[in-house]
Amino acid sequence: MARILPEDIAAVRDRARIDEVISEQVTLKPAGGGSLKGLCPFHDERSPSFHVTPAKGLYHCFGCQAGGDVIDFVMKTDMVTFTEAVEKLAGRFGVTLRYTEGGPARGAQQGQRTRLIEANTAAAAFFERNLAAPEAAPAREFLTERGLVTDAQPFGVGFALPGWDNLVKHLRAKGFSDNEMITAGLALRGNRGPYDRFRGRIIWPIRDLSGEVVGFGARRIMPDDDGPKYLNTPETPVYHKSQVLYGVDLSRKQIARSQQVVIVEGYTDVMACHLAGVDTAVATCGTAFGEDHVKVLRRLLLDQDEHRGEVIFTFDSDEAGRKAALRAFDVDQKFVGQTFVAVTADGLDPCDLRIQSGDQAVRDLVGNRIPLAEFVIRSKIEGFDLDSAEGRTNALRNAAPVIATISDRILRSEYVRLLSGWTGVDQSLVLDAVKQSAKPVKATQLPVATAAIPDERDPAGQVERESLKLALQSPELVHTWFESVQPQAFTGEAYGRIYAAVVAAGGPPADSDEQWITSVLEQCPDDQVRAGVRALSVELPRQLFGDGDAQINHRFAENVLSRLLELDAGRRLREVKARLQRINPVESEDEYRRLFADVLALEQYRRDLREALVSGT
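-> structure tokens emitted (617 positions)
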């Protein structure tokens, strides 16, 4: 089987900026020392423990221990093979790949994901061109009536011709197989061969965070179309509706910048919001807003303990809107930041609101948002006769369970006070009702990730950790000193195994080498050691004396290695002295003299190291 040439893989690693690739899915902020941090995309967390070091081309999460280079990241987030990840990055960053055995035929060796994305991209271009066709007049009229036609192109809106197999013929001419079209959800298998899934409909391409077309949404516009109003791409290897948000490719940068996202219900609502100046709007694609969507947005918002992010849902004020708000409230507790609801009294969605009242009305809709919890609680007491004792009691019983589910203790107590005022029931009684309605929390065992390296608190552990950081991150600073380090200098087993990988890779090079970390990783015997190497490759060096990050220079490196060697000498000195005490100098005179000479030599060696350490502090 043909394989990508190693030098081309190295070229992809070199040219593909890891911070640029990761920032498409994770909002990264400076962490000092050239490092960036954000919320890990591989596990739920409240405080960012996911670090990226562009200079080293590595990422590492100190929470779940996930880590690697840019290829590893694409493999894990896109769920693709190594070859597919390399091909994807090569296409994006302009690296021409060569293969062994003369290279693959077009499509024969390419990964499935790559081919499906290419098929979707070709289909999107085909649909977009068709919007100008005579048959697309109803689609253009649809957009014109909603004030979207002149500005539709940034969204890639298109039209599926009403014929039976227009897209199938087009993609066949582009070199795509029938099986690829069916797998991508672009065609259906019929008795006489594949035929177009989308026919005679206005089309919206659905893109992922990186801007790749993964699927389509299609709306019925023809009077003789008896199909569903909306038809989406089915689940495919590249399209998972529970994880996709329409418009996220256009809004992700502004979401991260403004710390706000507006969640609307349809494709035209996203377009209307963006055209009205609300450029943080996204929509789900044929499914309810769920936990997978939360994970995507939390990473973009850098949703953490500071409670700065805002998630704004737009719902109608009718019964359907209230039910949607209740569903949203179920996932509200997954966000750390604040959640809101933006509603209009007349029940207009953002697209209709813009048609009727203009851009400012859409902006005002978002600006006049109210907290989601307040909206849900008020909905729960609506309809009860609060002038009667029975009505107040029933309203309290209906709303108390909602307050009980609020995870923030301070916010929960505030809504106890507010509900007391809204219902006219004494606050102590409201609190009792909330406590009684709280469901008991079942004790669960959460999996705890085993750290690849110990978080040592003793001074020796800190020194060992810092010396390995220097060996990995700044090998040229410790090249000479590291030759004096022996395996027993590392008392922690994990540190000792990392040291062994460093030595097996040839020891820290005299000059800065971009492939140094890769060389060490290749010498790691298992994933745990590799995780340790990646972690220490991105973790900021720390001061040995005092708090704070260290200033990396020759003096700091000398201090760390001097201290490492001095601690090792001290341990060996204690061992030799203990042996010396156990020997009878009369019966074993030669051994006694040898050990005594070792004591003198080690004491002098340790004094020299201490003097070097003191002179550098």
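The two ends are 58 Å apart (CA to CA).
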